[in-house]
Design goal:
The chain is α/β, with parallel strands linked by helices and 216 residues long. It has helices at 16-29, 51-58, 77-89, 107-140, 151-172, 177-184, 188-198; strands at 2-8, 35-40, 64-67, 93-96, 102-103. The chain has seven helices and five strands. It is elongated, with a radius of gyration of 21 Å.
């Protein structure tokens, strides 16, 4: 099966330009689209919350997804890497037109997949190391996470021990901090403080509680 994937981020954008590019490409390559997936949604939205997630569950070996460019799949590197890894695991192919990317069963794709996997592992290790260093620094300074002994401190420690990798993964998928906090059943302020203490995100200098985007 050959799928044409089109994503626009607002109603003001049109799917027709992407459809035209894909059809023109298929005509040149003597290919025919078996099914179209079109959606109007931000690329920062987790892929499994989009029509793309349904497509990724459906694809099989030798299926081909064609899109205008890699940014149509997602708006950050780690999300795109995860999507491509799913396709590669299922032995499906992804081709893009503008950036001329080809994911398939060849040595170049395998090298890229290795690089993607290695990059993700390095980033996870760096985040883990930053967390350990931040906590060690706080301990050496005689500080506690949160407001001393109490429920809030216990919540932060619980996040550190059991939820860190989940939080990092969801941030990479573009999930908002309030939504992540709701999923792990902590107050959003608690999660913001944890992200600041571990260096994943930095607080602003303002006093109105707003937080700036950090690593993600």
């Amino acid at each position: 099966m050959i799928y044409g994937y089109i994503r626009v981020s607002s109603d003001k954008q049109t799917v027709e330009n992407q459809r035209f590019e894909i059809n023109k490409f298929c005509e040149h390559e003597n290919l025919a689209i078996d099914g179209w997936i079109e959606e109007t949604i931000s690329g920062t939205k987790a892929y499994n919350k989009r029509q793309l997630g349904i497509l990724l569950k459906r694809i099989q070996k030798d299926d081909l997804i064609i899109c205008a460019e890699l940014s149509r799949l997602g708006r950050n590197l780690f999300m795109i890497m995860e999507i491509l890894n799913i396709c590669m695991t299922k032995e499906a192919k992804v081709w893009t037109i503008k950036d001329n990317y080809r994911l398939g069963d060849d040595i170049q794709s395998k090298v890229l997949a290795f690089a993607f996997g290695l990059s993700a592992e390095i980033e996870r290790n760096l985040i883990s190391q930053r967390t350990k260093e931040a906590l060690a620094r706080l301990k050496s300074e005689g500080k506690t996470i949160g407001r001393g002994k109490g429920k809030r401190n216990n919540k932060l420690n619980e996040i550190c021990v059991t939820k860190h990798q989940y939080i990092v993964r969801k941030l990479q998928e573009g999930i908002s901090v309030p939504n992540i906090a709701k999923k792990i059943k902590v107050a959003r302020g608690t999660l913001y403080r944890y992200l600041a203490y571990t260096g994943i995100r930095e607080p602003t200098n303002s006093t109105n509680g707003r937080w700036e985007r950090g690593i993600y």
